[in-house]
């Protein structure tokens, strides 16, 4: 059996993406000290996803933390080292991460009609459809029962 | 929503001032849409990061190294470096410069030569060694040279606001260095976001940025009050205490902007710098309303931007909180060894870069002593303080003791993940223990006197002062009855 949940929110960076969800309940940023540029591994101490690889995943977290270089490190992981996430879902996508996601050409979505941290579970299959910045975006969650 | 541009901004966007300005304006206008900005601000300062410029960065063995060394910003410069008209020194009057990066440029020969013990080529007996990669060093020098051609200023420090370009109230800056952003907002009264390090590249070449976030009153307003206990106000001592205090204030406010009450009367540049550097690791908004210090907040009402609730949420910071913060920071990646004698490999000061007073303190503490062989004592500072220390003898004292003082670079910009396994690093930088805690080394957080002692003896031993404050409160208060604390009321020495 499959359960499908559809949420709507606002696109902060546009694009379409699909992948397995990693849900991190703590604030976390994308700088190389939080998520390695060389392997996409979560390094930030005290986070749920420490040790996990973000590459190709939909990363779900409340909002950013730490260095402004999160913007460039996110871009770098997505466009250069190829260890970036496929898309971002936040309660609030911080400006630093918006800028990194735009440069990295991955979708970033927030202000969903349900709290993404509570609604999405690690391992869910998540699709993001965010056609235009500032406009409505759809997040479809598929969960195997 | 369409952004209103000035005539000059529109001309830049239309390409009338060259290819580079048009390219950068395009990117900024795109970002402006995402943050719903309606206009741009005119900048006086851009603080960014020098790139590693390597023409073929996709070559597999080069890419592998760049993945270790690059913060991620360097490829953003590639298209700009191809443009013939790229220049930042122009009629915008915006001073552009960079954070510290890979090496001390005037000691490049020592870095590329055999290990001399200079940062960053070092050996740790029994653990291994670390050497900077020559191709990456050359790439950094090439990036630096290119920026100099473009008119960037060579300050290479996180603290240009102390002595090189000092924004004043009413002006705007774009600082991707979080601690500088927080200092500029909190102490100088100018306005900057903790700016995305993507945007700052484009800001430099245009001198402008969409108006959003901390530029606006609504994102600068205090939402709660954090008050220091009298005990805290009277007993904060040492740079690590200031860092821990900033961390406690940020923790109490839970990522909200706060007004801070009951601060000590005279906080110098080192104290304020360490206190506000909680901004990146502890809170996202780069402003604290330090009552008595923050120019735009002469009153609480002003700190709340006229929207102070009747009973604002109020939190208190006690010495017990400060002690707990020390315990927390020492538990992120705990150093092995006995509680009162933990072996150390590297002791470093200066993240953010040391002020001159901090350099002098290290020199005073280490004078006439010798750093234990195999242990490294590193003091990182900005260029003006570095040369002041050369001129006034502090640098000589540090070097004669076996330590190293340097400018233009910072430990945080080296690939710490690739330091020898089991390296223990001791510092008074809250910012770096918190940000670098996941890199692999073990971290010790302590005050300068304990740190210099650790460099000399090879083991970190907490000070008597720590022993006193870290006792359970009742025990401490009982002991105070027998021997009252000095309260500053009468001179200690007659």
What does this structure look like?
The complex is a heterodimer of chains A (145) and B (494). Chain A contains three helices and seven strands, in the order βββαβαβαββ. With 145 residues, chain A is an alpha/beta fold. Chain A has one domain (2-44, 51-144): Glucose Oxidase, domain 1 (3-Layer(bba) Sandwich), CATH 3.50.30. Chain A has a seven-stranded mixed beta barrel with strand order 1-5-4-3-2-6-7. In chain A, β4, α2 (95-104) and β5 (108-110) form a beta-alpha-beta unit. The longest helix of chain A is centred in the middle third of the chain and has 10 residues, at 70-79. Chain A starts with a strand and ends with a strand. The mean pLDDT of chain A is 96. Chain B is globular, with a radius of gyration of 23 Å. Chain B has a five-stranded parallel sheet with strand order 14-13-12-15-16. In chain B, strands 1, 2, 5 and 6 form a four-stranded mixed sheet that branches. In chain B, α16 links the parallel β12 (346-354) and β13 (376-381). Chain B is built from 22 helices and 17 strands. Chain B has helices spanning 7-13, 19-34, 60-69, 74-81, 108-112, 134-149, 160-163, 178-188, 199-206, 230-235, 239-253, 269-276, 279-282, 300-303, 319-331, 356-366, 383-392, 394-400, 430-436, 448-457, 464-469, 473-482, and strands at 40-48, 95-98, 122-124, 128-130, 172-175, 208-210, 224-228, 258-261, 289-290, 314-317, 342-343, 346-354, 376-381, 404-406, 424-427, 442-445, 459-460. At the A-B interface, α1 and α2 of A face α2, α3 and α19 of B.
């Amino acid at each position: 059996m499959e359960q499908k949940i559809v949420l709507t929110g606002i696109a902060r960076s546009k694009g379409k993406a699909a992948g397995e969800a990693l849900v991190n309940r703590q604030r976390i940023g994308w700088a190389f000290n939080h998520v390695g540029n060389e392997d996409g591994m979560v390094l930030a101490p005290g986070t749920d996803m420490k040790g996990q690889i973000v590459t190709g995943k939909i990363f779900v977290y409340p909002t950013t933390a730490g260095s402004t270089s999160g913007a460039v490190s996110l871009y770098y992981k997505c466009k250069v080292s190829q260890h970036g996430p496929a898309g971002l879902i936040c309660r609030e996508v911080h400006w630093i991460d918006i800028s990194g996601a735009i440069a990295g050409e991955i979708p970033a979505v927030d202000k969903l009609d349900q709290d993404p941290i509570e609604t999405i579970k690690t391992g869910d299959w998540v699709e993001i459809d965010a056609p235009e910045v500032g406009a409505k975006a759809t997040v479809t969650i598929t969960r195997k029962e | 929503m369409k952004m209103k541009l000035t005539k000059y901004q529109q001309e830049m966007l239309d390409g009338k001032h060259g290819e580079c300005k048009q390219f950068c304006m395009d990117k900024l206008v795109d970002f402006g849409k995402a943050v719903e900005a309606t206009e741009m601000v005119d900048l006086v300062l851009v603080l960014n990061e020098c790139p590693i410029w390597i023409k073929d960065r996709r070559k597999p063995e080069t890419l592998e190294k760049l993945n270790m060394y690059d913060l991620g910003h360097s490829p953003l410069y590639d298209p700009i470096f191809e443009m013939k008209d790229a220049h930042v020194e122009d009629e915008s009057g915006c001073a552009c410069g960079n954070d510290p990066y890979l090496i001390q440029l005037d000691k490049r020969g020592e870095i590329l030569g055999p290990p001399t013990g200079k940062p960053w080529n070092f050996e740790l007996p029994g653990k291994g060694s670390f050497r900077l990669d020559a191709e990456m060093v050359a790439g950094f020098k090439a990036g630096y040279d290119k920026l100099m051609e473009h008119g960037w200023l060579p300050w290479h420090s996180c603290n240009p606001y102390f002595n090189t370009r000092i924004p004043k109230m009413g002006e705007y800056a774009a600082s991707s260095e979080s601690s500088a952003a927080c200092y500029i907002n909190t102490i100088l009264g100018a306005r900057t976001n903790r700016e995305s390090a993507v945007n700052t590249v484009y800001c430099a070449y245009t001198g402008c940025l969409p108006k959003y976030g901390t530029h606006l009153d609504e994102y600068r307003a205090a939402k709660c009050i954090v008050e220091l206990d009298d005990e805290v106000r009277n007993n904060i001592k040492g740079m690590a205490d200031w860092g821990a205090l900033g961390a406690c204030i940020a923790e109490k406010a839970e990522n909200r902007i706060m007004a801070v009450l009951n601060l000590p009367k005279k906080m110098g540049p080192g104290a304020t710098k360490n206190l506000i550097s909680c901004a990146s690791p502890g809170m996202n908004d780069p402003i604290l309303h330090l009552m008595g210090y923050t120019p735009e907040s002469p009153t609480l009402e002003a700190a709340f931007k006229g929207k102070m609730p009747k009973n604002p949420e109020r939190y208190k910071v006690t010495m017990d909180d400060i002690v707990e913060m020390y315990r927390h920071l020492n538990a992120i990646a705990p150093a092995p060894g006995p509680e009162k004698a933990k072996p150390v490999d590297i002791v470093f000061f200066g993240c953010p870069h040391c002020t001159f007073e901090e350099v002098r303190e290290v020199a005073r503490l280490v004078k006439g002593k010798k750093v234990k062989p195999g242990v490294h004592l590193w003091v990182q500072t900005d260029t003006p303080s570095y040369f002041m220390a050369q001129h006034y003898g502090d640098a000589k004292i540090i070097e004669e003791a076996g330590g190293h003082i340097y400018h233009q670079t910072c430990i945080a910009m080296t690939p710490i993940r690739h330091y020898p396994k089991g390296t223990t690093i001791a510092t008074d930088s809250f910012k770096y223990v918190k940000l670098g805690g996941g890199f692999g080394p073990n971290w010790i957080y302590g005050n300068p006197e304990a740190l210099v002692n650790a460099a000399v003896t090879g083991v970190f031993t907490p000070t008597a002062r720590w022993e006193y404050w870290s006792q359970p409160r009742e025990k401490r208060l009982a002991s105070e009855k027998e021997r009252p604390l000095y309260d500053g009321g009468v001179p200690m020495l007659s």
